[in-house]
Inverse folding.
């Protein structure tokens, strides 16, 4: 648990500073996960690892395409899945999105732009329906007001998941 908390905490700092999470950090987490899975399950652990690392990529590919979720966030979920397995991964995903929704709502209320962002969302959905294809989600001219560092939600979601699961 400590290794994952440390990796996620470093990822949060990186995300806040540069809107990016280093691939070196992700790889170190993935190597740790691979080692732990093989140590625990033997050769079968390799298959379990690959499956659990792949789940977030499959689940969130569309969100990545429209730029609603960053690649670093998806890789953090993959890292958690590789280290902890399916149960903790799914619990972390659900809790992270709930935490992220709470953070987003607070931010929208703080900046007093909830209604205007709902209109942007409505316009986006209409454009997708009319064009028949996925488009990048518009962030607007005031990027900091419209973007959250989702790594924070992942860290909090993971911490809660570990309390619930263990």
């Amino acid at each position: 648990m400590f290794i994952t908390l440390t990796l996620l905490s470093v990822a949060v700092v990186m995300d806040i500073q540069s809107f990016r999470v280093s691939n070196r950090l992700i790889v170190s987490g993935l190597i740790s996960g691979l080692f732990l899975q093989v140590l625990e399950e033997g050769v079968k652990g390799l298959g379990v690892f690959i499956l659990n690392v792949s789940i977030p990529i499959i689940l969130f590919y569309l969100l990545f395409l429209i730029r609603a979720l960053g690649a670093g966030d998806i890789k953090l979920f993959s890292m958690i899945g590789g280290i902890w397995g399916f149960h903790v991964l799914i619990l972390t995903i659900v809790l992270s999105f709930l935490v992220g929704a709470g953070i987003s709502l607070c931010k929208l209320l703080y900046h007093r732009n909830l209604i205007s962002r709902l209109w942007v969302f409505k316009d986006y959905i209409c454009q997708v329906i009319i064009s028949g294809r996925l488009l990048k989600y518009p962030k607007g001219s005031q990027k900091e007001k419209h973007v959250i560092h989702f790594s924070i939600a992942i860290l909090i979601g993971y911490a809660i998941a570990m309390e619930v699961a263990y």
